[in-house]
Design brief:
The protein is mainly alpha-helical. It is about 65% helix and about 10% strand. It has helices at about 30-45, 50-55, 60-75, 85-95, 105-120, 125-154, and strands at about 1-5, 10-15, 20.
Length: about 150
């Protein structure tokens, strides 16, 4: 067997079985979080449903990806790097989209996140990434709906 590194991932080549298997690892560092965030948002940007929203709102992807890496590093590795307000940012995006973001958007986002985590990582922190994404998705969706209701009552 031979281990090779390519595009930030390690692969195990089993010449006896002619198989190429990705070596999945633990989330342990900012580099791991960055790989997760960048891989995930590459999928989001290409997604038929989510791509137009994200590409229409985000004008500086490198800066945004660093901000999201800070957010997830804070949430997964407990290194305080993120100091923003994701709730207000998502309400603002929903407003810019005419309050049309719904459960299908959140479901697609979560499914892409789960797919990416499971492709790249395993272990406790990977499971935390999955659980937190589900919790945050639900929380943000409910609060976006609440913000719409509050706005309509004014």
């Amino acid at each position: 067997m031979v281990i090779s590194s390519e595009f930030g991932c390690q692969h195990l080549v089993d010449f006896d079985n002619f198989a190429l298997k990705k070596m999945i690892k633990q989330i342990e560092s900012r580099e791991d979080v960055s790989l997760l965030v960048n891989t995930f948002y590459t999928k989001v940007r290409k997604d038929e449903l989510l791509g137009p929203i994200f590409n229409g709102i985000i004008t500086d992807w490198p800066t945004h990806l660093e901000l999201l890496t800070d957010f997830w590093e804070t949430n997964l590795l407990y290194k305080r790097k993120y100091f923003g307000n994701p709730m207000s940012a998502h309400v603002e995006v929903d407003n810019k989209c005419g309050n049309t973001i719904n459960e299908l958007h959140f479901g697609t986002w979560i499914n892409l996140w789960l797919e990416t985590v499971n492709e790249l990582f395993e272990g406790e922190v990977a499971q935390i990434a999955i659980n937190r994404s589900r919790n945050m998705g639900t929380f943000i969706h409910l609060n976006m709906f609440n913000a719409r209701t509050q706005e309509a009552e004014r």
